[in-house]
Amino acid sequence: MIGTIVNTVAIALGGLIGLLIKRGVPKHVEDAVMSSLGIGILIVALNGVLSSMITVLPSGKLRDRGGLLLIISLAVGTLIGELLKIDDRLNLLGRMIENKLKVDGFAKGFISSSLIFCVGAMSIIGPLNDGLRGDSSVLFIKSALDGTTALILASTLGVGVLFSAIPVLLYQGTIAMLAGVLTKAVSDDLLSMICMVGYAIVLCIGLNFIGSSKIKTANIIPALLVPVVYNMLMMLKTL
Length: 239
Description:
By secondary structure, this protein is an all-alpha fold. The protein has 12 helices and 2 strands.
């Protein structure tokens, strides 16, 4: 658990420094940073999707895998999210906290940064290594990356980024505690599929940041479960 705790503290500390910087940042500079950050997130997310989808065969040829699953996952996940109104409920919760803390933009900062910090291979592999072997090296690297990202995000999105440390603690902490069970259930292929869908969601966040669209990213979160269900069905089929 030490790696997850360090990761949580790094996000909180980075977010706190970002909030201090935010006070002196003019609006036009804030908008420019948001757009640049969105472009960076788009590139990283696209790289994550492609690296999960494309494998290099021993012959040197490229093989595409999971493209259809990605489309189905996003479609089914979004349908479930829209029916459950996940984004609306999270935004309502965010507005309640905004009113309580008397701050603006809490929901956007909280939802966007939580997804960025919790999606990706490192957020799964790191806690698994931490829980099974006591090896926190992956999470220490993630802490440095997340702390820096939290600083930049908080300087533009505000206090919501600071609170995103809580879902990171709960998510990665749970994986670390259940590592013994999860390591048997999560194969490399399943991890790759989950990350592929996760990075696609992060790509949507990047699009929102540059202002080219307004995608309700929280409604796509159930898409992360579709590869898990698909993997379970394939396992049952082989029995």
